[in-house]
Amino acid sequence: MASPTSPTVSRALTNGDDDAIPGEDTSEVTKLFAERLAAWKHAVGYLEDYITATEKTHHAHGKEYERVLKTVKDPLKEGHHFDQSLGGIAGMFENIRSNTQGLSNQHYETAKQLKGSVLPVFERLHTEIKNKTKELTKGAGKGSKAVDKARSVTQKHIELLGSHTASFESHGGKMTATEDPYVLQRGVLHRLNKQIQEENNNRQDLISVQNSFAQFEAHVIQTIQGGMGQFMQVVNTQAEQTKMAYGDMVGTAQKIPLDFEWNGFVQRNNTILIDPSAPARSVSNISFPNQNHRSTKPLIAGSLERKGKLRSYSTNYYVVTPSKFLHEFKTDDDFAKDPVPETSLYLPDCVVGALSDRKFNVKGKDVSKGKVGNTFSMSHEFQFKAHTPQAASQWWELVRQAAGQVTTEVPEGSTPTSPIGKQNSEVEDGKHPLPLRTDTAGLARSDTTGTSTTGTAGPTPISAAPASGVGREPGQY
User: Fold this and answer.
1) 138 lies in a domain?
2) CA distance 193 to 185
3) Model-level pTM greater than 0.70?
4) N- or C-end of the chain: fewer Cβ atoms within 10 A?
5) Which residue in 162, 204, 169, 164 sits closest to 21, CA to CA?
6) Is residue 347 domain-shared with residue 455, that is, in the same domain?
7) DSSP class per residue in 463-475
8) Looking at residue 377, which CATH number applies to its domain?
């Protein structure tokens, strides 16, 4: 860079000046330069304050980011629900912690660089300006004082010459040798010469100062530019690192596969979660205690018709249990509704009539309502009708074995028929009974049951249903 040239000074100190003692202020130029140096000193001081404030701000930012870091520093609550490997939510938070710690460290480092590298540039420049001010005061300032002193001495001799030239006119020229105006004038010229030498020397000093100020100000500006360049480099590095840190945080979050956490969660909890490919539970595949206890298996089960109050028959599902109950249900479906018996007859407390074709009667109390209902209920006569005579014989035989009393009373409008004879006639005619679910193994007879009121023995017990009827599902009749 070319050195700047000093502008032409339009004002000359002595040339063209006819006055022996000019009326100018010899320190005016020096004061002007001193004021300009003060302006530069204050400008550099502003920059020093700016860098210092910025350094303190970054240091404070470092502390603030430490506070920000505390918000994610503790382990995640319920953190076991997240995959701890990289690439997931836990890895994202680890990345946030790392980058936030990095941001804090970067601000501390920026503050350190501003204080250690940038600020000294302006501090040194400030010192140079102070030294320049001292140099101006000791150099040009001292020359101005010498000029003022020389002018004062010359002024005194000029006044002395004037006084004695006036005395010469009034006294007719009589005076001492030292008061001779001739001698005094030569003394004025002598001192005026010394004054002019001081003025010219001071002039040269001011010109040198003036020329050096152009170069010094160029140096000041170059130093400021260099310091601001270093400042920009430091803060730009900080800004880029901040941008990269936040970009890394966001990028890490965006790279998480949408099913990453879910797949890990399923894998970690595969013993708890439901397997979609596993078959649904079915009652048929479930077992429970006493599921196949002999008391749970019916002796016979199927559909019968029972005469109602309107003398019409309705079909329902009936069961004779090993507990010697004859239960009536609306259906054999265990799942549609709670299978609570509509009617329950405790057969040892009932009286069973004779079998007539497909019909037989049972007289007793409905105990399906429990003890209270049993206490207040009255005995009723229930008339049943099977779908076939063979089925009627099987039902009647099992009911008769469990009943407390057997009579020869036949259902209304029926003729008594021997079960054994009926079976034999059916066999002879080539007829076969419809299958029933029967099981007489669980039916225990007492010594006092199974006798009729007329003293005749009942039909021979049926030990088991025909092969075609064993194991049939309820609801066949």
Assistant:
1) yes
2) 12
3) no
4) N
5) 162
6) yes
7) -S--GGGTTPPS-
8) 2.30.29.30
427 backbone φψ class: left, alpha, beta (φ>0; ψ -120 to 50): alpha
Contacts of 411 (CB under 8 A, 6+ apart): 353, 356, 359, 360, 361, 383
Do 313 and 430 belong to one domain? yes
What Cα–Cα distance (Å) separates residue 456 from each residue in 35, 250, 441, 448, 453? 150, 99, 24, 14, 8
Q: Is residue 286 part of a domain?
A: no
- The per-residue pLDDT for range 385-402, each reduced to its tens digit, is 999 999 999 999 999 998
Going by C-alpha positions, the residue among 311, 324, 419 that lies closest to residue 364 is: 324
Domain range holding 323? Answer: 294-469
Phi/psi region, residue 73 (left: phi>0; alpha: psi -120 to 50; beta: rest), is: alpha
Mean pLDDT of the chain, nearest integer:
79
Residue 372 lies in a domain: yes
The amino acid that residue 231 corresponds to is F
Please indicate, yes or no, whether residues 252 and 211 belong to a single structural domain of this protein: yes
From 263, 282, 308, the end of a domain falls on: 263
Residues in the chain predicted with pLDDT less than 50, given as ranges, are: 1-17, 416-435, 444-477
In this structure, what token pair is assigned to residue 248? 């890394």
> Distance between CA 118 and CA 112 in Å, rounded?
10
Q: Token digits for 70?
A: 């505390």
| Phi, psi of 227, rounded to the nearest 5 degrees | -65, -40
Structurally, how many domains does the chain consist of?
2
Does residue 10 form part of some domain? no
